[in-house]
Structure formats: C-alpha cells, structure tokens
Amino acid sequence: MEIDAYGYVPLGGVHRFATRLSSTLTVNRGTAPVPVYMLPTIGGAVSPGWPRGRFVAPDRLLASVLYRFPLLHYEELLTLEGHVGGHLAGSYDDVGNQFSTTLSFENPPSPNESTRPLRPSVSTGLRIAMPRRQDLELAVGISPAGISAVRFSLVRTLQALRPPHHSSENVR
Q1: What is the DSSP string of the chain?
Q2: Hey, what's the torsion of the CAs at 94, 109, 65, 155, to 10 degrees?
Q3: pTM of the prediction?
C-alpha cells in the first residue's frame, strides 16, 4: 500500500514551500517472502543524495520540504524555478516497532538496530515548466553517503491536456 501526499504552501508571489509525505507498506498476501526486487528502496529518485537502492526493506517513510523560488518567467511560454530542500527517509522491516523520530548521520548505518532513525539529505535544483507540457526537474543531493549524481525527472501535472468541450463561455 502506498500513500503519497504532495502540496504547496504559498509564501507570496510565486515563492512557496513544496511539501511531500509518503508511506509505503508492503503486505505479503501469501507465505512466500516478497522478492527483494519488489521491495521499496531509498535512493536518489525519492530522496536526493542517496545512492540507488541504498536501503531496501518492506516499509518506507519519506518527508520532503522544498523552498521553490522564481529565476525566470515568460508568460505562457516558460518558467524556470530554483529549489533548496531538506529530505528525511527511513526504511523498516516493521515500521510500527522500528520507527524512531531521531536522525542518523552514520554511513553505513549501525547493524541490528532495534529502532531505525530517519536518514537526512539536502538538495538543490531547477524546475523547467512549460504550459501543457511535462515539467523537467533537475536536482543534486547531498547525504551522509556523499553527493548523488544529478537526477532528472519528467513530471506530468494532473490537468486536462485541452480545455473541456463544454464550458460556460461557449453558452450564449
């Protein structure tokens, strides 16, 4: 089961905080163990700064806060934004018993911990947006494991690609 919540907190003008909370809980439907390649991981794709597949476990928690600020804006053509952000991530065999609100900067993590702390990372990056197109996001992250390579992602917004056929403007 995966729950992902993403939202913005406006700060005035086009400055804003972008927040994300995510939880992934893996429930096995049978008696066989879930294959490792199907388990959620923590890596640069979900938390910039961590190497791909750094932490693998059945349960995963993520939290991110990004400060987004404008760099360049051409009406109806292009928007270029920068961001600076902080991220927390944790992977657990049993999130109910192992979750801890503490932070750990250890790399590698201590083995056989009874509770598992959250792993921090920070990122900086760019967002390139054009109306009715996918956004391109570029980020460089830093974690206790080091600096991750630049990551990029294409983000499709949940809006109609063209206006609806029937609108109040067309009714006379």
Answers
A1: -EEEEEEEEEEETTEEEEEEEEEEE---SSSSPPPGGGS-EESTTTSTTSPTT-EE-SEEEEEEEEEEEEEEEETTTEEEEEEEEEEEEEEESSHHHHEEEEE---SSPPTT-SSEEEEEEEEEEEEEE-TTS-EEEEEEEEETTEEPPPEEEEE--SS-SS--S--GGG--
A2: -80
A3: 0.77
Which residues, including other chains, have CB under 8 Å from residue 25's CB and lie 6 or more apart?
A: 1, 2, 58, 59, 95
Token digits of residue 66: 């990004």
Tens digit of each residue's pLDDT, the chain (172 residues):
889 999 999 998 889 999 999 999 988 888 888 888 888 888 878 888 888 877 888 999 999 999 999 998 887 788 899 999 999 998 888 888 888 888 888 766 666 678 888 889 999 999 888 777 777 888 888 888 888 766 666 666 555 555 555 555 554 4
